[in-house]
Amino acid sequence: MVKINSRMSEKRRDILNDARVRESMHPLLMRLEQSTISVSHMQYAFLEILRTHQSDSGFWDSRLKFCSDKEEDYIFWREDFGGKDITVSLLYLEPGEVHPPHHHNNVISVQSVVSGQIWAREYQRIKCMDADNILISPVRDRLLKKNDEIVAHEWLNNVHWFAAPKDEPAVIWNCNVRGFETNLFLHPAPNSLGRILLDPHVKVINGCLLAQKLTVEEGYEKFGNKPIANWPIPDEVIWMDKI
Ligand SMILES: [Fe+2]
Questions:
Q1: Chain-centre distance of CA 40, in angstroms?
Q2: E strand spans, the chain
Q3: Is there a smaller number of Cβ atoms within 10 Å at the N or the C end of the chain?
Q4: What letter does residue 239 receive in the DSSP assignment?
């Protein structure tokens, strides 16, 4: 059975399991809100904070063990700021589990593998045709190992697709900051800040891929539990570093 691991637009309740995570990250979020730091400054500061928490084995190991033993996610901190929110968590992926191709409206994300390995494919959004159709270009298609990262925001690599290998579970540190950006890619901008599932390979137009919105059910039906390699990038597609 395909596990649906996309939380969509449902209301998320506040959770504070680890005040030290909030204390270390909240000031940076407020500086972003006040435009005194850039999105990428915050993202790389968050990665530094992750490394600090990881290096404290008395703190870190029990959280990671929770994920591995229970085979579920662990949430350090989630807080709603009224139309904006942050979630900092560990995502557990069972062997072969796929997070199907998707993009985000107004989401800044930082992810880093903390256990196991992840196959990840990332694309850049090139052009918004309409709310359901976008042009994208592939950026990277690679195996991520421990401490490798996926960093995305509204204007950087905001389409991704990732999966754990068939024979081993994986855990990813996942930070999602939603609703804080003001210059948005999608027109008209959707009301939801949830994932938007995509078929990224509908057809090739001028060296780009036409990607089309799918329902959650369609996305998981088509891509759930299947290796990303089943969808090779067509030869005529131009990769981002060649544009
Ligand atoms: Fe995502």
A1: 15
A2: 15-16, 74-80, 85-93, 98-104, 107-115, 118-130, 133-144, 149-152, 159-163, 170-178, 195-205, 208-213
A3: N
A4: P
Q: How far is the CA of 125 from the centre of ligand 1 (A)?
A: 13
8 lies in some domain: no
Q: What order of strands is seen across the sheet that includes strand 170-178?
A: 15-16, 74-80, 85-93, 170-178, 107-115, 149-152
What is the Å distance from ligand 1's center to 109 Cα? Answer: 7
Q: Which CATH number goes with the domain that contains 217?
A: 2.60.120.10
Does any domain span residue 23?
A: yes
* Cα 234 to ligand 1 centre (Å): 23
Instruction: Answer yes or no: are the C-beta atoms of 87 and 12 closer than 8 Å.
Output: yes
Specify the pTM: 0.93
How many domains is the chain built from?
A: 1
Q: Is residue 190 part of a domain?
A: yes
Strand partners, 107: 178
Which residues have CB under 8 Å from 129's CB, separation 6+? 135, 210
Cα–Cα separations (whole angstroms), residue 55 to 96, 114, 134:
28, 12, 40
Taking alpha carbons only, the member of 74, 226, 239 closest to residue 161 is 226
Which tens digits make up the pLDDT trace of 41-85? Answer: 999 999 999 999 999 999 999 999 999 999 999 999 999 999 899
Measured between alpha carbons, how far is 46 from 54 in angstroms, rounded to an integer? Answer: 12
Residue 132 in domain? yes
Å from CA of 236 to ligand 1 middle: 26
Q: 46 alpha carbon to ligand 1 midpoint, in Å?
A: 17
Strands 85-93 and 107-115: unpaired
pLDDT at residue number 9 = 54
Q: Whole-angstrom Cα distance, residue 176 to residue 173?
A: 10
